[in-house]
Amino acid sequence: MSETDTRTTDETERARRPGRERGRDDGKFGRYGGQYVPEALMPAIGELTDAYERYVLDNEDGFMDEFRERLADFGGRPTPLQRADRLSERYDTDVFLKREDLVHGGAHKLNNALGQVLLAKYMGKERIIAETGAGQHGTATAMAAAHLDMPCEIYMGERDINRQRPNVFRMKLNGAEVNPVTAGRGTLKEAISETMRDWATTVENTHYVIGSIVGPHPFPVMVRDFQAVISEEAREQAIEKTGDLPTDVVSCAGGGSNTMGAFAHFVDDEAVALHAVEAGGSTLEVDEEAGVAPNSASLYAGDEGVLHGARTKLLQDSDGQIMESHSISSGLDYAGVGPELAYLVDEGRVSPVAVDDDAALEGFHRLSRTEGIIPALETAHAFGFLEEHHEDLGDRVVVNVSGRGDKDLDAAIEETDKRDIDEAPDMSMFTGGI
Amino acid sequence: MADPSAESAETGNSEAIAAAFADGPAYIPYLAVGDPDYESSKAYVEALDRGGADVIELGLPFSEPIAEGSTIQGALVRALDAGMTPDRFFAFAEELDVEAPLVCMTYYNLIYQYGEGDGPRPFVERAAAAGIEGLVVPDLPAEEADPLREACDEFGLDLVFIVAPTTVGDRLDRIMSQVSGYVYVQARLGTTGARSDVSDQTTQSLDRLREYDVPKAVGFGISTGEHAERIVAGGADGIIVGSALVDIVAEGVENDLSTAEVADRLEALSRELKEGAERGFAARAGAAESR
Predict the structure, then answer these.
(1) How many angstroms away from the CA of A292 is the closest CA of chain B?
(2) How many Cβ contacts (< 8 angstroms) between chains A and B?
(3) At A292, which helix (H) or strand (E)?
(4) Cα distance between the two ends of chain A
(5) Among the partner residues B161, B171, B190, nearest to A200 by beta-carbon distance
(6) Residue A205 class from Cβ within 10 Å (0-12 exposed, 13-18 middle, 19+ buried)?
(7) Could you list the pLDDT tens digit for every one of the 434 residues in chain A?
(8) Is B208 exposed, middle or buried (0-12, 13-18, 19+ CB in 10 A)?
(9) Structural domain boundaries in chain B
(10) A402 given a catalytic annotation
(11) B23-290 under CATH 3.30.930.10, yes or no
(12) Which residues in chain A have Cβ-Cβ distances shorter than 8 Å to B165?
């Protein structure tokens, strides 16, 4: 193991690894990525690219040092890599949990939001806007903006506002304005479009904190670099605990920020299998006529196209109209996915798997019951995968616990009541809200 | 590859579009095709033509129109709900009885996905067959436009680019080397939508573009004949009007007006805008003479 040990302590060597640098120069991941945005936004993303290169890549003015310090002091990093004893026993393999649910705010989202709000500050911007789906990115951005004393407005689909009321309160408590988006089905993709419209009007003093590894360059590489702290820690922790790299890394995937965060430092370790678990929804079949895909499995079932500034894999009809996606978890409910993940899937480096609503909900209860951790419904998909595919995995499996489930209690109770799930408590008395 | 700028800047691919700017200002109205339904939409576009349109921009609806404000978003949603698709759009263009050349405004994913195989060529080939003379693609920057530009050159279509108030320096040069037909000068930052004032940003943009020998059509926010007059007097070669016209269609839907009545209103506003543009042009010519 001495060779591996040397590598992990050698910062320079690691920084030179090609997988970590992919896309940094031109925003292209093979055929994916790019900058498909209205002309009015081009100067803004040019300015952002310049700031990304100076502050994030070159640590100008000590930006990355301040970011790391704030992630530790405000964000609570590093997060533990915890052995899940009962799951390890159940699957007869060592299961480790990367506890991103313990990041301040209860999800990995702060890693990116704090990085971008701080970057906006370094760039001299005066206002923060962001979209949110489940509300996790919105709350993380609102927290980071309050922490760094920046005015903040969040765009959120009306339907998501109704599904995620506690997060709406949290954003408001942190001083953010929440703007409901009523277009389309009122979920994440409409919220992203609306935030881009705001940005097109306000680029000169406003930074758009995008919540995932999606959108035009430099967002996909920048968000990946901020989230890569997950796998940077996990890789060292795994080696420390087991003396070896993990055999498998498992992460749920919507837009893909926690996914790329969990994979980034393992991409070049070819022996480590990377599993991106998408929301299979109720079925992988699509209804072309209605323009609805009752899932969010864009890596697994999508086709190449252009959405929200990037060429990537999308859920779309044969004309190229974007489908309405669906998932039990609003954080995975998105018709696109980060261009880097689309590329890594085509290359065979990342395996996409779809886990349906039922299996995700069972995973939610299993982790809550057996390990004392209530996961986000997004995260629960990774545990659905573990149950279904554990026989195909190696001896040391790392699962990224991307967020905690407190925000999902209402949805979980309601969905549980519709099904007959082993190990689930009878919550019928609570349906209709707690 | 030879520098295409000189050639494209002077002529463009479409003779009809060049002719629209040849003597006097071009009035370029926009409507979303299929809003609120196929037949009414046809009557509305034909009303624009009667009202004096020199070029007509036809919006092919996309589900995620990130460059549009709420007015045109609403129109695109109505058209999609009524069943508009790229193939119906082309049939629509073929059935239209209009004199003005047609330009299709849509988003890149629809162009990219159309027909067999990858790339924009099948869409452009079909558009040319349907009599479309040019394309505007708001989410396709010049950096990503080479494949579409090549297809447009092959089939004789113009590729119109949008220049924003924030577009300066190398970016402006790069766009102007790709553009043909006319350049769409975005009058202000933000998304489309009718507004009542004329922005200083418009004047500054026109000043920046003066050295480029390609017609400059100003859009975003023009809603009255007086607007049109001031913008043309300020140096624009054409005006693009979308939201103010789409508003008339939307009011027709809300108030359940007859197709004929909505068409009459569209024709009347078109005349007002066209006459305003002509007054602005005359004022500019007069100012040049007296100088």
Answers:
(1) 12
(2) 114
(3) none
(4) 51
(5) B190
(6) exposed
(7) 344 444 444 555 544 456 778 999 889 999 999 999 999 888 889 999 999 999 999 999 999 999 999 999 999 999 999 999 999 999 999 999 999 999 999 999 999 999 999 999 999 999 999 999 878 899 999 999 999 999 999 999 988 888 788 889 999 999 999 999 987 667 778 888 889 889 988 888 999 999 999 999 999 999 999 999 999 999 999 999 999 999 999 999 999 999 999 999 999 999 999 999 999 998 888 787 777 888 888 999 899 999 999 999 999 999 999 988 888 887 888 899 999 999 999 999 999 999 999 999 999 999 999 999 999 999 999 999 999 999 999 999 999 999 999 888 988 988 998 888 877 888 777 665 55
(8) middle
(9) 23-290
(10) yes
(11) no
(12) 40
Interchain pair B138, A189: CB under 8 A: no
Token code pair at residue A376 = 């986000």
From CA B61, how far away is CA B144, in angstroms rounded? 21
Q: B114: which chain A residues are within 8 Å (Cβ-Cβ)? A: 319-320
Structure tokens at A397: 């499996």
Identity of the amino acid at A268: D
Query: Do residues B245 and B31 lie in contact, with contact meaning Cβ atoms separated by under 8 Å?
Result: yes
Catalytic residue status for B68: yes
**Distance of alpha carbon B159 from the chain centroid:** 11
A246: preceding bond cis by omega (within 30 degrees): no
Please state, in angstroms and rounded to a whole number, the distance separating the CA atoms of residues A87 and A85.
6
- Using a CB-CB cut-off of 8 Å, the residues of chain A touching B110 are 319-321
Give the domains, in start order, of chain A with CATH numbers. Answer: 33-74+108-223 (3.40.50.1100), 81-105+228-430 (3.40.50.1100)
Query: Cα separations (Å) of B149 from A29, A413, B67, B102, B105?
Result: 23, 54, 21, 18, 15
